[in-house]
Specification:
With 278 residues, the chain is an alpha/beta fold. Helix content is 42%, strand content 23%. It has 2 domains: 185 residues, Rossmann fold; 81 residues. A 6-stranded mixed β-sheet has the order 6-7-8-3-9-10, with helices on both faces. A hairpin with a 2-residue loop joins strand 9 and strand 10. Helix 4 packs across helix 7, helix 5 packs antiparallel against helix 7 and helix 7 crosses helix 8. The longest helix is centred in the middle third of the chain and has 19 residues. It binds adenosine-5'-triphosphate (ATP). Keywords: Amino-acid transport, ATP-binding, Nucleotide-binding, Transport. This is ABC transporter domain-containing protein. It holds the Pfam family BCA_ABC_TP_C.
Length: 278
Amino acid sequence: MRWLNDPLLSVEHLVMRFGGLVAVDDLSFNVGRSDITAVIGPNGAGKTTVFNCITGFYRPSGGALTVRGGAQTFALEKMPGHAIAAKAKVTRTFQNIRLFAGMTVLENLLVAQHNPLMRASGMSFLGLLGIAYPAAERAAIDKARHWLDKINLTSRADVAAGELAYGDQRRLEIARAMCADPILLCLDEPAAGLNPRESAALTDLLLGIRETTPTSILLIEHDMSVVMEISDHVIVLDYGRKIADGTPAQVRRDERVIAAYLGVEDQELPAVVAEVGS
Ligand SMILES: Nc1ncnc2c1ncn2[C@@H]1O[C@H](COP(=O)(O)OP(=O)(O)OP(=O)(O)O)[C@@H](O)[C@H]1O
């Protein structure tokens, strides 16, 4: 269990308050290096708020968020969002698609590599002489083509991103995030709105990222078939608190999880658990 033996991210006693509302309440969990970790829970459980704290969109009211990169450790709760992406290498996608709809598919993947290109062009001596830039540009195009191939969109490289089918746009967003070489990729409901064929393409892509790259994946997902198929580790939230944490098989059998999802009263639980387990 890598989340215990080799944690990439440790969330410790995270609290997020909005006025009098406690959206995340003393939450602790680990994300294992190279794992696919899912955060699940009923509507309003606090999943997106946790993501917003990890990726710097919210400053937590309390607690610690520690990422252990190679030789470096980052305290995300103290870092601005842009540094979390650029320095700690934690990137994300959103519930609603945020591609540059008017740019081509390829351009969307090149913009994601803006930082290395900028460094190579204006911010170094070789770049000023025009020596480093072409090499950096070639490397950026190679990387974009690599991810285009992974998402089966090579033939659509020059099409405007907004013209792609919904499922293709979802996978392009993930490819764009991967072009920044994240150590942790946070995906907010990547399977939402996908048909079964698109959903299968998504799970292939995510399993491929786990197998062929060092990137760990943390996802929020309502589609339980996707969660159970691809996750190494599942964390279940309800009312801002963790109610279960384990392998998919462990959480599937957990009485508190069943109760939270079905909205069952305590006294009805044994009967429901017997029914679900049968
Ligand atoms: N910016 C905000 N200001 C005030 N309350 C908020 C804010 N963001 C979230 N909340 C509240 O915090 C709680 C948790 O919301 P959150 O969106 O994190 O849940 P969720 O588990 O992601 O839900 P869903 O599955 O519906 O997306 C909810 O009660 C929500 O209304």
